[in-house]
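Exercise 7b. Backbone tokens:
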């Protein structure tokens, strides 16, 4: 039997390659396996005849093998096997690729199930696209059912994943799950089965929502417990100095917008209190959130305390450090950079002395790297940090036992309802106005061969000594999606449309030093074109970058495309965004919205309408919060969880009466986003 806390290596049939794939997906224990839910479901429940199978439908056919033979092709290392099958109503052919074992499996006369989408070809008649096959001699995993589709990695196949999940269900020791009563355990298992082995989409969603509530309750309890602890300790009040504020703003290279002034004033009023500030500044790309944070941190330093700005990546931390140096100019504000790869000389002494502004990554959170007089902690792109990291910033580092004020910033344009979902314990300030002098970014959707327009614009930009981003959604070659990876795209561009231009490469699997070198070569113009994954999505600021081309644009959410678009147009230079796609229909029309809508908040609302409660931002931001089942758009569930969490924390702050909830809260507190 499989225990809930045992490693997934205990699942019979989990080969080293399967375990490696699961590891890369964050699945290490039996609990992880069950709580990693399907991305979607393929409906193969309709078992029909060949005659009745209609083009465009997902169906399951019960057929007899007539013939299976290898087809000669001109491509090396690419094998095609043609399968001919029949039933009482007709015949059908389909192809299997690079699967030589089918010759021994599909023997003449064998009865099998084939599941897939029906396609009609004028020349060959009906066929199935990428069909699944299963024997009729034993229980099926997909044929005749609603089949779960899991996230994959490496060589792990859906069929293998489903088979191992079925084994895990059959062999799970339910009394090791650790719930408080037998009734709760039965209900929990029932909901797991609804998710992994549903009879209908409605049943799958019913099971997901039941478990999403449990997870979201733990998340809200974790946030409220942190807030309550902070309120008990209190914060150091930061007195407002009107003369300093006026002089600081006067020395800025440009005046503050009305939204910036309102956000700064709200935060300054918060920090005058001994109740710890918990405020979120939500601003569209290029709206000037960093200037507001710089102003507030300078104010804290002027008042005699220290401030710290935490960024999710080394690249972004160094960019913030450089920006603060420019903004502070000749002001006597000590500025300290602490990342894993670079630290300001004498930083240890400056930590001891305090009364400075510190900038860094997670490295700042290590022992003795934050000053004892920390009065303000600023977190950039907070959703990229786990609950534990957020709490680390607001526990007491001070000798007087007080906790610092907390200011969070995000450039992700989120509808207000979702902002309250993600940041339920924070006050929200919104910055929508753009600084004066910024030109609108011209956005063009390039379909198919129209990419030539984008490539011509890239060459012209390079000739003007400007910089060009090219963004791809994948890192390694994977034609399953038909999209070029960053590495393959860099090679293709250098030998084709951008031949003769030096091209750099940047992606999340590179070491920190390699990323920095790639970015620096781009900034310096050594490689004026940078092919990248979405590692450049947030915060990267290269003022003379004027063109961004996004390959496979239909694979991204509107809000994420808007984020990427914001990497250009950060100066008074005219800038363009090219969305490169082969998509048609609804996906193409969705991209066309970006040609006419420049407001990120409007786009996020459109994304919410069109994509519903799915993966709203193109990346799994629920996962970045440490959530495995709940979604950011489960607003009803979250509202109930917030209400229930408030009662639980008030009545049982140590969670003595809620041991299972306490365990889940502790799991969330050690969850951290990994780029």
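Sequence design result:
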């Amino acid at each position: 039997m499989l225990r809930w806390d045992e490693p997934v290596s205990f699942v019979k049939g989990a080969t080293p390659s399967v375990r490696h794939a699961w590891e890369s997906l964050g699945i290490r224990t039996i609990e992880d396996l069950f709580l990693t839910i399907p991305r979607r479901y393929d409906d193969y429940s309709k078992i029909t005849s060949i005659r009745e199978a209609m083009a465009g439908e997902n169906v399951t056919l019960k057929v007899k093998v007539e013939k299976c033979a290898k087809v000669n092709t001109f491509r090396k290392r690419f094998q095609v096997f043609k399968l001919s099958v029949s039933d009482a109503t007709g015949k059908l052919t389909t192809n299997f690729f690079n699967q030589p074992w089918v010759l021994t499996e599909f023997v003449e006369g064998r009865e099998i199930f084939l599941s897939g989408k029906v396609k009609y070809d004028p020349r060959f008649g009906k066929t199935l696209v990428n069909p699944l096959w299963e024997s009729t001699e034993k229980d099926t995993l997909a044929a005749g059912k609603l089949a779960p589709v899991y996230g994959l990695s490496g060589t792990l196949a859906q069929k293998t994943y489903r088979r191992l999940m079925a084994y895990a269900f059959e062999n799970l020791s339910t009394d090791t799950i650790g719930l408080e009563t037998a009734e709760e355990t039965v209900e929990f298992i029932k909901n797991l089965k609804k998710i992994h082995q549903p009879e209908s989409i409605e049943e799958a969603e019913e099971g997901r929502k039941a478990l999403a509530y449990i997870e979201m309750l733990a998340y809200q309890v974790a946030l409220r417990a942190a807030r309550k602890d902070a309120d008990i300790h209190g914060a150091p009040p930061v007195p407002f100095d009107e003369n300093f504020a006026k002089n600081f703003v006067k020395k800025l290279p440009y005046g503050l917008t009305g939204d910036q002034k309102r956000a700064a004033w709200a935060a300054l009023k918060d920090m005058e209190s001994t109740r710890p500030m918990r405020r979120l500044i939500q601003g569209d790309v290029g709206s000037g959130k960093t200037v507001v944070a710089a102003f507030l941190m300078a104010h804290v330093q002027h008042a005699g305390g220290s401030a710290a700005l935490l960024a999710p990546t080394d690249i972004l931390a160094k960019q913030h450090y450089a920006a603060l140096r420019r903004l502070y100019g000749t002001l006597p504000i000590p500025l300290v950079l602490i990342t894993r790869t670079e630290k300001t000389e004498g930083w240890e002494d400056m930590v001891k002395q305090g009364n400075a502004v510190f900038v860094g990554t997670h490295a700042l959170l290590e022992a003795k790297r934050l000053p004892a007089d920390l009065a303000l902690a600023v977190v950039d792109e907070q959703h990229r940090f786990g609950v534990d990291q957020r709490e680390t910033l607001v526990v007491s580092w001070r000798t007087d036992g007080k906790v610092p004020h907390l200011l969070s910033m995000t450039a992700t344009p989120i509808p207000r309802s979702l902002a309250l979902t993600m940041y339920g314990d924070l006050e929200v300030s919104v910055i929508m106005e753009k600084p004066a002098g910024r030109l609108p970014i011209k956005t063009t959707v390039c379909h198919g061969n129209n990419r030539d327009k984008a490539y011509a614009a890239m060459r012209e930009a390079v000739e003007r000594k400007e910089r060009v981003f090219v963004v791809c959604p994948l890192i390694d070659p994977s034609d399953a999606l038909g999209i070029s990876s960053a590495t393959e795209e860099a090679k293709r561009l250098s030998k084709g449309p951008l031949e003769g231009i030096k091209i750099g490469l940047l992606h999340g699997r590179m070491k920190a030093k390699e990323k920095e070198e790639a970015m620096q070569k781009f900034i310096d113009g050594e490689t004026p074109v940078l092919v990248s994954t979405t590692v450049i999505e947030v915060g990267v600021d290269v003022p003379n970058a004027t063109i961004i081309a996004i390959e496979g644009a239909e694979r991204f959410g509107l809000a994420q495309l808007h984020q990427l678009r914001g990497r250009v147009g950060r100066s008074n230079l005219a800038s363009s965004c090219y969305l490169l796609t082969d998509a048609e229909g609804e996906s193409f029309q969705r991209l066309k919205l970006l040609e006419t809508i420049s407001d990120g908040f409007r786009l996020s609302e459109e994304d919410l309408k069109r994509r519903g409660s799915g993966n709203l931002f193109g990346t799994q931001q629920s996962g970045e919060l440490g959530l495995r089942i709940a979604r950011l758009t489960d607003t009803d569930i979250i509202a109930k969880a917030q209400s229930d969490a408030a009662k639980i924390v008030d009545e049982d702050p140590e969670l003595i009466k809620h041991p299972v909830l306490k365990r889940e809260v502790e799991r969330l507190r050690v969850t951290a986003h990994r780029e």
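Instructor comment: Residues 284 and 625 are 21 Å apart (CA to CA). The radius of gyration is 28 Å.
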